[in-house]
Amino acid sequence: MKNYFSKSKEEVLQEFQTTKNGLNSQEVEERVKKYGKNQLNEEEKVSTLAVFLSQFKDFLVIILIIASIISAISGNIESTIVILVVIIINAILGTVQHIKAEESINSLKSLSSPKTKVLRNGEKVELSSEEVVPGDIVFIEAGDLVPADGRVLDSFSLLVNESSLTGESEGVEKKSDVIEADELALGDQKNMVFSGSLVSYGRGVILVTATGMNTELGKIAKLLEATKEKTTPLQVSLDNFGKKLSLGIIILCGIIFAINLLHGVKILDSLMFAVALAVAAIPEALSSIVTIVLAIGTQKLSKENAIIKNLKSVEALGCVGVICSDKTGTLTQNKMTVKKVYVSGRVVEDTGLDDTRLAEDIVLKESVLCNDATTEVGDPTEIALINLAKKYSVDYKELKEKYPRISEIPFDSDRKLMSTVHEIDGKITMFTKGALDSLLPKLKSIIHGNEIRAITSEDIKEIENINTMFAETGLRVLTYAYKGLECEKDICYEDENGYIFVGLVGMIDPPRLESKEAVEKCIMAGIKPVMITGDHKVTAKTIAKEIGIYQDGDNVLEGVELEKMSDEELKEKVAHTSVYARVSPEHKIRIVTAWQSLGKICAMTGDGVNDAPALKRADIGIAMGITGTEVSKDAASMILADDNFSTIVKAVTTGRNIYANIKNSIRFLLSGNTAAILAVIYSSFAGLPVIFAPVHLLFINLLTDSLPAIAIGMEPSHGEVLKEKPRDPKEPILTKTLSSRIIIEGVLIAIFVMIGFYFGYGEIKDAFKGSTMAFAVLCLARLFHGFNCRANSSIIGLGFMSNPFSVLAFFIGFVLLNGVLLIPAIHKVFEVAPLELNDILIIYGLALIPTIIIQISKYFKYKR
Ligand code: ATP
User: Fold this and answer.
1) Cα distances (angstroms) measured from residue 609 to each of 50, 227, 331, 334
2) The domain 306-333+512-643 belongs to what CATH superfamily?
3) Which terminus of the chain has fewer CB atoms gathered within 10 Å of its CB, N or C?
4) Is this structure's pTM higher than 0.70?
5) Does this entry carry the keyword Nucleotide-binding (predicted)?
């Protein structure tokens, strides 16, 4: 390993042939070819063939193979061929669907891949971290994930957490100075940063020395166990259900086999009965439907600006009972404009400053100098301040060049302050701006016009009053203070003291237009919206009231009050508290935990570097796509591409809808299967001939049933899901209501299937025709039943065409069925008897009746 820590910055820059403009496009291209992308080699991909072969491990497929053997033994070669073809088609479909689901997950991954700021062709650009190459100059700041290994070129209070590499949870301070040593442990390489660590404070500039598998993280990547969550709780519970069902089916098949033997049926026929029953009972499409619906759902969510990082969260979304949201930028527009300024003892409008006086002049200078933004980029709070100065013809660039920053302590949301040092007209001056509560105890003097004097208790009272007055109109307030320093120096926290108060700047950040409606929807859906903000209590409450989050009688809690409470006390208060103000990221964890101890599933937003633990703790951690730090995105389970609260509500609605759709698909598949099982059992007990050939049931289960099941999974939201309470996460998917519906609808269809059978069987006991009619009624009745399972409301309420996929699925199934019934050439393969027009009409009629009955009952039940 090369020891870059013992080399000077210039030596390293030269070694990588990087200039102060960074790399140019051609150099980048060459280096990508030479070093590859900056990514860790993912575990080896399972080959398509292996995926295909794994489809044959299924219990169903084994049953089908047995069925094909029995068919062959009984001399029915066509049937054997059909079954084998079906097995292969099924395996191909399974493979395609597996690959599609992987693709959709991978595309989501790339949507949420971390970004980094790089100097290229002399300009600072934002790229996906994958595109970083050795020799790149990269800018890192609090909240970033370090994208690659690098030598520190510049450090401004840069603090990096390297716990993922060294296990040391304390942040390490990074400097650019050369370290004279031959060998050093990673933790001691204080002028190097390593891929995968988190920048917890300050900012820095680094030269990338290694990327991808060549980084320190890459070296240990092979040892790290990839914790991929491939299956969701729903999939696990359905798998378990499938296993239990299989066991039940085997037992049932054994019983039916024995009964038939006792009835004197031949062994082969009895076996055929048992196999038909097994094929009828196994819901082949179930697990693939769930995967498909979840995959389609996550795609839909990403179109709605909610990027889901794992499928598990889609399910949890549907259970969310509390949404704890940041205020600034999520509920509000994050478009700040200064409205009022309090300086020299009076409140003036944004354009009313008399900048010939010292106090007012300091307001303008501090606005620009104690500020990291430009007019376009940066924190909106700070952009607003630059814009304020512009109103007084201050050229912010010129001012920044004239009075360069000598030292700084960056803003952080725990301290709620920011300080910078400049030399102004020969005097070393320290500016500090931030929250009044943080600055008030540190004030010593006050400036009025051109005069500085000691601050009095009356002054403080007035400042507090003005602060409250600003906040009551929803303004976000920043306090300005400054002081002189004896000499140039690197400031630290101890220097933030003994200030001269300058003024208060109040800025408006209007609520997003959609917030109010989204809050209403939340409340209607039984979800509690909660505002958690670093802002002032009164500002927060005013905005919360405007949006509808705060209602009369609710509590508003402040961070300091929270600190005094025990967990038990907080648990008692939490349900009635709708606003938390002046909250630090650490408090968020306590709020989430308190809600969780009340049994609620809690979604929590966060954007800052310190929000990661709360995001991890929440059931759904939500990071901000635009303003969020990379660390918060890394910890979150969902990323809001538009930072918008209403997107969370949309995502919850979609999450509920996806779950409802999966449930409806299951209802559709299982009720159809129940009908088939009941028909088989009935005919066995009644001593009738084998009612269905396995090929019939395969045709239905694998062809005509799969499409409506998928179409049901794609049912759009009808708002029904918002009228319900959040789902209990422990509630099984097969609730009592669902099971009873499945049974009732199954019985209903089975009755008409048997009527169909008797029609065909007739007095002459034509078993072949009877079986054909039973098969056709079952198939068509299930196709019609697809419309019943779309949602709770009747089809009139839903609108026939509101889900065009369901119409298409029906149509395809209908054509396939009629093809089988009407094309004589394939009759033998599908084991159907030729039918007359009359029979066909009877089939249509019988198949439609269960759906008419179900629709009428729905109409009356869900009329409201
Ligand atoms: P949230 O996004 O969580 O709703 P917020 O963005 O209002 O809250 P913070 O950014 O932590 O919360 O701001 C908290 C307080 O810190 C503000 O009310 C303001 O007084 C002060 N503050 C915010 N930004 C700056 C800044 N750039 N410089 C100095 N002080 C700031």
Assistant:
1) 42, 23, 20, 19
2) HAD superfamily/HAD-like (3.40.50.1000)
3) C
4) yes
5) yes
